[in-house]
Design brief:
With about 375 residues, this protein is mainly beta. It is about 5% helix and about 40% strand. It contains two helices and 32 strands. The chain is elongated and about 75 Å long.
């Protein structure tokens, strides 16, 4: 145990210095086991858990308790049509779908291409709620190749070691949801197109090595907004070729950014609110233009935005860009502002700004 602790400490120091590591040095994910051959297939639109349980062909495979709004599945659930848990904006409508697993990944929740899973105010978990110390616990596998819409929900006891949660051309909207008590990783994104994924306001608390795993890239960079990422070894594990992740307003330990290839990057950015005021009177300047230039030409092109009637505007600014295998990766970036009245000239602001952490009040920008 002492040697393992030393390995983890050494890994954290290496990541902080921008050093690439290989997953094989740690407890890597096991090969994905085969799911149960017994399946419940969901076809057509508007399916509910209660309706699935009431279907004669599913007798003995899935049951539903209306008193607790809980469905228990004893089979892999394959969504080829639409399945809906709960109702949006109605917390009391939430339901629980639990899998009666017996071993790691022996049952799955699969959303096939063309399938749609909607989850509102609901919980996905196992019956046993067992999380062992092994690399692959008694969780269920989760695979989405179709579309997932999840809001205000909880995902528990996924076997991340036996899952590829979002992959390929999957679409996903995941808001204000918590992924926890998951082995391996809390959420994995494999070769996804970030333009098809919207993740905002979530917690990814892995009980295994990783919080969020991003493997490869299938299109635009993956953007994660206002989320918490944490696990034993890595809050974010970037693998595959050319993976690019943008973390905006996220809470995580910077020493827990881990790369497993010699390519890819993590862009760390923060939202900054500004207010343009008259340099002499301090009154807001409605409709003023705000321009931001970043010190590194590699980091970003200049950004311009127009202030609202109260002189306020909001921008997303890079703190730094982390890349594997470079000790200078992650240097903090400086941003310089210029402001302009609707009928005036550009006025440079004297002091550069470093974006680090969430802001608690707007930055005041004086306009001449």
């Amino acid at each position: 145990m002492k040697s393992l602790s030393l390995l983890i400490v050494g890994l954290s120091l290496a990541v902080a210095a921008g050093v690439m590591v290989r997953e094989s040095r740690l407890t890597g994910p096991a090969s994905v086991p085969l799911a149960s051959a017994v399946q419940v297939r969901v076809t057509g639109a508007g399916n509910t858990l209660a309706a699935l349980a009431a279907a004669p062909e599913n007798a003995g495979l899935i049951s539903y308790d209306p008193a607790t709004r809980t469905a228990t599945s004893r089979a892999t659930l394959v969504v080829e049509g639409e399945l809906v848990l709960g109702r949006e904006n109605e917390p009391a409508s939430g339901e629980t779908l639990q899998f009666d697993t017996q071993s790691c990944g022996d049952m799955r929740l699969e959303v096939r291409p063309g399938g749609l899973l909607r989850v509102y105010h609901s919980t996905l978990q196992t019956v046993s709620q067992v999380l062992s110390a092994g690399a692959c616990s008694r969780g269920y596998g989760f695979f989405c190749d179709g579309e997932l819409v999840m809001k205000d929900s909880r995902v528990r006891y996924i076997s991340g070691s036996a899952s590829e949660c979002l992959r390929g051309q999957a679409r996903a909207t995941i808001h204000r949801s918590v992924f926890s008590y998951c082995d391996g990783s809390a959420l994995s994104c494999v070769e996804v197109d970030g333009g098809r994924i919207d993740i905002d306001g979530c917690d990814f608390r892995g009980s295994g090595n990783w919080g969020l795993v991003v493997e490869g890239r299938g299109g635009e960079p993956l953007v994660i907004r206002n989320c918490l990422l944490d696990a034993r070894v890595g809050a974010l594990f970037v693998s595959g070729r050319s993976a690019v992740v943008r973390l905006v307003d996220c809470v995580f330990d910077p020493a827990k950014l881990v790369f497993n290839q010699d390519s890819g990057e993590v862009q760390i950015a923060w939202t900054r609110r500004v207010q343009v005021v008259d340099a002499r009177t301090g009154a807001p300047v409605p409709g003023a233009m705000v321009r931001v230039e970043t010190g590194s030409p590699r980091a970003a092109e200049p950004v311009e935005t127009r202030a609202d009637p109260q002189g306020r505007a909001s921008l997303v600014l890079l703190e730094r860009i982390a890349r594997p295998g470079r000790r200078d990766a992650g240097a903090t970036l400086e941003h310089r502002f210029r402001v302009k009245r609707p009928d005036g000239e550009w006025t440079p602001c004297p002091d550069p700004l470093v974006a680090r952490g969430k802001d608690d009040q707007p930055v005041i920008l004086p306009a001449s």
